[in-house]
Amino acid sequence: MSSSKLTNSRLSTSGPQGCALMGKALLQTPYFNKGMAFTKEERDVFQLNSLLPARVNTLEEQTRRAYEQYQARRTPLGKNTFMTSLKDQNEVLYYRLIQEHLKEMFPIIYTPTEGEAITKYSRLFRRPEGCFLNIADQQGIDAALARWGPAEDVDVVICSDGEQILGIGDQGVGAILISIAKLVIYTLCAGIHPNRTLPVVLDVGTNNQSLLDDELYLGLHKCRVRGPQYDAFIDHFIHVCRKRFPKAYIHFEDFGVQNARRILNRYTEEIACFNDDIQGTGCVTLAALYSAIHVAEYELTDLRIIVFGAGSAGMGIADQIRDAIAMESGKAKREANNQIWCVDKFGLLLSSHGDKLTPAQHDYAKSSDDWQNPHTSLLDVVRKVKPHVLIGTSTQPRSFTQEIVQEMAKHVEHPIIFPLSNPTQLHEATPQDLIHWTNGRVLTATGSPFSPVEFRGSKREISECNNSEIFPGIGLGAVLARAKLITPSMLVSAVKALAAQAPALKDPTAGLLPDVTNVREISVQVAAAVIKQAVHENLHQEKHIPRNDDELEAWIREQMWHAEYRPLRKIERSGASREALGEMGSKGTEVA
Q: How does the cofactor attach, per the note (predicted)?
C-alpha cells in the first residue's frame, strides 16, 4: 500500500494537524498543548512568545522533568493525582511518560491506586471529565450525548453504573473514573485516539451507605434503582448512543453481577459491544490456555477443565473456553459445556441448585444424579474429574492446597493451573508453591504480577493474565473495521493472535503470554485478526480495508495514535472542524 494511501486513512496520524486556537486558548487545550516544546515558528504563528519562557524543550526533556516531579510525590495516590493533573495539561506528555515507565506506572493509573482515587472521587474532585447521565433525567440523554459531536467524532464509548468497581464494590458516580482509566489503557495499549473517546457514568444511585451519608458525595443521593426502571434507562441510553454514534464501539465496565451478563446478552446481537469483566478476562485466560496446551501437547477438544469461582469472571472464562471448543470440534455449545465443571461457594454447580444459579451458571450445572453429595468440595471434584486445567477466580486465598494440586498432578503429566484472583493477597496459590508441589511440571499464569521462580537452577517466568493485552486490540480492530457486531469467532481469532506471540511457544520455561511492555505490537496483531474475521463474516462497514497481511498491518499502524508532537498548521476559526477547535475528547463542548 502506498504511503499516500496510508496518509489518507480515516484516522491517519501522519503530517501536520490543523489548529484554530491561539495564545492562552491553545495552552489550555491538552490535546494540542506542547508546553515548552512549541517550536520558535509555532510560537510566532500562534502568538505564544510572551506566554512561555524562551527555551525550547524536546519531548524527551519534558518527560525527564515530569518524571522527576512524579517521583517527588510520596504516596501512590499522590502520584495518581499528579498524573491526572498532567493529563489535564498536556496529553502527549502524559501518555509518553507512562509509555516510558509502563510497568512502574500501570498500578498507579489503574488498579490498585485508581481504586483508591475512585473511593475518594467526590472529595478529590477538581474539574469534570466525561459524560454524567442519571436515571432521574432520562429525557436529557439525547441532548447530553449530542454535546459530544456528530456521528463520526466518537469511536469508543465506555459506560459503567459503578456497582462493582475493581473489587471495591459500589462506588456510584465515582465510576466515571473507571471509564476514563479504561480509555487511557485503550490509548496506551492500542493507539485509540484520546480525543475520539467518550467515558460515561450511568448514575442510578448507590447502595454504599458511606456515600449516601457523605454530604459532599456528587452523585444521586438515593439507593440504587433496579427492575424495569433501571432496564428502561439502560435501554434508552444504548439506543440514543446508537443513533448518535452508529459506528461506535460500546464497552461495558464494572456492572454488578446481576446485570453485567444480562445487559451484554441483551445487546450483543444488536451492536458492537464488549464487557471486559466477562469477555476480556475470558479471552486473555483462553490465550494463556492455548499456549499451555501447545507446551503440554494437549488438544483443546480433549481437555477436562475446572473453574473455581463462578462469578462474572469465572463464567466469562468458561464461556470463552466453551466457544473455542465448539468452534474447533464442531460440537454444539451444549456438548462443549460437558468438558467444564464450575465450583462456587456452595460447591459444584448442580441442576438441583435451581434458583440459586444465575442465568450464566445454568448451562454448566451438572446432573445431581451423578453427584450424590450436594456440597461437593473442590478436592472431591478434582478427584472425580481428573482435570487437565484448574482455574481460580474465587478470591479465596490459598484455596489451591498442596493436597488438591498433587491430586491433580497424579493424573496428568502437565497440570495447567491458573490462580487468577487479584489483588495478590487473594490468589488461590503462589507460582512458587505450584512449581515445587508438582516438581516443575505445572504450567501456570496468574491474575497478579509475580517475580520469576527459581527451580533446579533455572528461572521460570510467570505470565500475568492481564486484560490489557487483549481488550485494547479487540477494540482497535472493531473501530478500524467499523464492526457491526463482536462475535464469538472474532474473539477466538483475537485470542489465537495473542497466544501466537507467547514466549513459551519457543521456550517452555518462558511465559505463557507476551510481556505487557510489548502491548502495542500485540494490539496490532490482535486488531488484524479481529478485522480479518469481521471481513470474513461480512460485519465490517469500513470499505477500504487492505486484504494483504503486510498492508493490513501497515494500515493499522498508520491509524494508531502516538504520544508524539505533530506540527501544527494554523487555520481560520471560521468553518474550522471540532478537532481543530479543540472541542473533541472527554471534555467535549456544546455542538450547535
A: Divalent metal cations. Prefers magnesium or manganese.
Is 363 labelled as part of a ligand binding site? no
Helix/strand/coil for 482: coil
> CB-based contacts of 349: which residues, under 8 Å, 6+ apart?
310, 341, 342, 343, 357, 361, 364, 365, 366
CA distance 568 to 215: 45
Q: Tell whether 277 is in a known binding site.
A: yes
Contact present, 287 and 470 (Cβ < 8 Å): yes
| pTM (predicted TM-score) | 0.92
pLDDT tens, 203-239? 999 999 999 999 999 999 999 999 999 999 999 999 9
Catalytic residue among 182, 247, 484, 532: 182
Q: Evaluate whether the domain defined by 279-465 bears CATH number 3.40.50.720.
A: yes
Catalytic residue, candidates 94, 110, 121, 267: 110
Domain boundaries, the chain: 17-112, 121-271, 279-465
What is d(CA 362, CA 357) in angstroms, rounded to the nearest whole number?
6
How many other CB atoms are there within 10 angstroms of residue 451's CB atom? 10
Place of cell 517550536: 39
Query: Hey, how many other C-beta atoms are within 10 angstroms of the C-beta on 44?
Result: 11
Give CA–CA dist 428/448, Å, rounded: 11
C-alpha cell read off for 240: 440514543
Q: Is 337 annotated as ligand-binding?
A: no
- Tell me: the pLDDT tens digits for 439-453? 999 999 999 889 999
Is the domain covering 17-112 a CATH 1.20.1530.20 domain?
A: no
Query: Does a cis peptide bond (omega within 30 degrees of 0) precede residue 423?
Result: yes
Residue 13 grid coordinates:
496520524
Angle between helical axes of 488-499 and 281-296 (0-180°, round to 10): 50
Q: Is 275 annotated as a binding residue?
A: no
Domain 17-112 matches domain 279-465 at the CATH topology level: no
Give the residue ranges of DSSP H helices in 23-175. Answer: 23-27, 40-45, 59-72, 76-89, 91-100, 102-109, 113-119, 121-124, 141-146
Give me the CATH topology for the region 121-271: Rossmann fold (3.40.50)
